[in-house]
Write a structure and sequence with these properties.
rod-shaped; 299 residues; single chain; 2 domains; four-stranded antiparallel beta sheet; alpha+beta; Alpha-Beta Plaits
Length: 299
């Protein structure tokens, strides 16, 4: 009889542990998924911002005999522009290249409508994402204009501001959902642990009544919480990166990011899983340690 009771208790304990691990894994999987979406949304936001370029123009009026000297000055100016703090990427466009682009955009193959070199040399500049900010873009343009040799800088500031605001609005929504999922993770994992500890409330009180100290009683529960949190986090991470790999392979995009970001995401998931599990275990166990025997029947 005693053996059957022990086997029943062991099965119930295993079932309880499996339920807790699955709950932790599912919650952390959703939390990690929001983290991956946030990371990639930030990267694609920066990528789109870098496609918003400004054009810095050289003086188009000079004597043909000074062409060698002008070419050297333009080269020096181009190098200076590349070193500016707001500049992410710069591309030099000569008069010949500008003429070819103009012909291609207008669908013209001959020189009948205009001379070959009527367009000035210029530099196409992609600003760093943080300088697309409406509060910084004017200062960035002034910095580019201050470079000797640049006579004019043109950009579609209205488009830049609209794109910047829309992208930031999307990122804020994603961040908000990520925080919501973090709160849900705390609540759901805490509830799973409380139910598990609740089922052991009589064991906890019995140990306390026979003279066991609170630290002694807490220790095995904390160790078990660390193990369950780590296992649940590991399963959640395996599911997360498995689903993410399948998703990226299906759409044909690698979603290549910095390894450091993935590393910190893994650390965050592991940390959240273990920390919440341990904290919930301590709080729930301490509650029964402080309660009276009669309270156990009404908790």
């Amino acid at each position: 009889m005693a053996k059957s009771v022990d086997e029943f208790n062991k099965k119930r304990l295993r079932s309880s542990n499996i339920t807790v691990v699955i709950s932790i894994a599912l919650v952390l999987f959703l939390l990690g998924l929001m983290g991956l979406i946030l990371i990639n949304a930030q990267k694609y936001s920066d990528y789109i911002k870098e496609q918003l370029v400004v054009n810095a123009y050289f003086d188009e009026n000079y004597d043909a005999k000074d062409s060698v000297k002008i070419a050297k000055l333009e080269e020096e100016t181009f190098k200076k522009v590349q070193t500016l703090a707001p500049v992410k990427r710069a591309t030099y466009i000569s008069r010949e290249m500008a003429a070819k682009e103009a012909k291609a955009s207008m669908g013209i193959d001959s020189d009948a409508l205009f001379e070959e070199n009527i367009f000035p040399s210029s530099i196409e500049i992609a600003l760093k994402p943080e300088y697309v900010d409406p509060a910084k873009i004017d200062a960035a343009i002034k910095t580019i204009k201050s470079v000797p040799g640049i006579v004019d800088v043109k950009n579609n500031s209205t488009l830049m501001v609209d794109v910047y605001n829309n992208l930031n609005r999307i990122l804020k929504w994603i961040l908000g959902f990520s925080i919501l999922f973090l709160v849900l993770a705390v609540v759901l994992i805490n509830n799973s642990i409380r139910l598990k500890i609740f089922s052991k409330r009589f064991i906890i009180k019995t140990m306390q009544l026979v003279g066991a100290k609170r630290r002694f009683i807490l220790k095995p529960f904390i160790v078990e919480a660390i193990v369950l949190g780590a296992i649940g986090s590991f399963i959640g991470l395996l599911a997360l990166f498995g689903v993410w790999y399948y998703f990226t392979s299906q759409i044909g995009s690698a979603f290549v990011q910095e390894n450091q970001q993935y590393f910190w995401l893994v650390v965050l998931i592991l940390g959240v899983g273990i920390f919440i599990t341990v904290l919930s275990t301590i709080v729930a166990t301490w509650r029964f340690l402080k309660s009276n025997v009669d309270d156990l029947y009404y908790s």
